[in-house]
Design a protein that fits this description.
alpha/beta; 3-stranded antiparallel β-sheet; 12 strands; globular
């Protein structure tokens, strides 16, 4: 296998090359830089509301009630755990195929990661989830949709219901993915997204926490660092709800800057064009990989529909909608719960699967997310 790989022609192009920032984003960023007003809040009122409007737009995109924009996807995960009252030393379950910032966010919140095994399909093993939940006494599962690999969410939600687990979704690699027609990022009590350069949306660094509970949203806003300026948020609970938490919620200074929001807002509108291009490149590379004898093919996971990105085909295991799964024959033990995976493995597939939207545990059913047509799968860091 090593010799065969060495003899393969080498691709010279960088498949992680990000899309350029839209001209509207560059223009707004320059306007902000000339004004010097890069902070998300205005002391004299909401005289620069780029972040507040972005939060409102992103909440609508995902079809969640509230969005809090922060400085990274990892910060969003940490805030999710804090507003769920995760305590120092408390065990938090996380699937072993993930990236360092995910267990890092658990430690940042003062908790303790408990790694759950994955199966040969790179997604969480629900049998091991049951074992680890019972052995550890954990009450929170932080599910990482790593490289866009979407677990059987019906099985995951069934296990969470059975075990009394609260679900938090790490969606850094899965913006606009669905399971049986339901948006990834709407299954958990909270979900975190990333705007790091190699993601669907690129601000260099940035993140979003989305959730539906008014009290948790109020705490997240205050934790993020709103000072007494929280009324400038547009995607927020009533001011009296926030006021009820104001005197007892520490400021962690995790705010997104106005500059980052200026870069991000036009990219929401640019997603359909990006997706069409990325999907075409992905499918072209995947088709060529599929033809190579060293790649094994498995059937597509039923119900999963994840956006594709050209980098999905860089190597090993990748689930592709409309295409069989193509993977180098790597023993499943190579990426068990030590958190590692075959080098370069990324996820993939396309958007908008069909199927009934399962009822949300403890919440009313939401409207369909206001997504364009599809979106990307993502890269390496949060």
């Amino acid at each position: 296998m090593g010799l065969e790989l060495a003899l393969l022609p080498r691709l010279q192009r960088d498949l992680t090359e990000p899309e350029p920032i839209p001209e509207a984003g560059i223009a707004r960023a320059c306007e902000l830089m000339r004004s010097g007003r890069l902070f998300r809040y205005g002391e004299m009122g909401a005289d620069q509301n780029d972040v507040a409007v972005l939060e409102q737009e992103f909440a609508a995109l995902i079809a969640r009630r509230y969005c809090v924009a922060v400085n990274s996807g990892g910060a969003a995960l940490c805030l999710a755990l804090k507003v769920l009252d995760v305590q120092p030393g408390e065990p938090v379950l996380v699937n072993g195929f993930t990236l360092a910032p995910v267990p890092g966010a658990i430690l940042h919140a003062g908790a303790r990661p408990v790694l759950v095994e994955i199966g040969a399909d790179y997604v969480i093993d629900c049998d091991d989830l049951r074992r680890k939940a019972r052995a550890s006494g954990a009450r929170v599962l932080l599910l990482s949709h790593m490289r866009g690999h979407i677990a059987d969410m019906d099985a995951v939600m069934g296990a969470c219901e059975e075990l009394g687990l609260v679900l938090v979704e790490d969606c850094a690699h899965a913006l606009c993915a669905t399971w049986n027609g339901r948006a990834i990022g709407t299954f958990g009590e909270a979900a975190a997204f990333s705007a790091q350069t190699y993601k669907h949306l690129n601000a260099g660094e940035g993140g979003f926490l989305v959730l539906d509970d008014a009290h948790r949203a109020a705490r997240a806003i205050l934790h993020s660092g709103s000072y007494m300026l929280h009324e400038q948020h547009l995607s927020a609970p009533a001011s009296d709800v926030i006021a009820g938490w104001e005197e007892r919620t520490p400021n962690f200074s995790m705010r997104m800057t106005a500059l980052a929001a200026a870069l991000l807002r036009p990219q929401l509108r640019d997603l359909p064009r990006r997706v069409a291009r990325w999907n075409a490149i992905h499918d072209r590379i995947a088709s060529a990989m599929h033809a190579l004898s060293m790649f094994a093919c498995r059937p597509v996971r039923r119900g999963s529909n994840t956006p594709r990105h050209p980098s999905s085909s860089r190597c090993s295991a990748s689930r592709m909608a409309r295409l069989p799964q193509c993977s180098i024959a790597v023993p499943p033990a190579a990426c068990r719960s030590n958190g590692s995976a075959p080098a370069g493995s990324v996820a993939s597939p396309a958007h908008r699967a069909t199927g009934a939207m399962p009822a949300s545990r403890g919440r009313c059913r939401r409207p369909t997310p206001s997504w364009p047509v599809s979106a990307t799968s993502a890269h390496l860091s949060r």
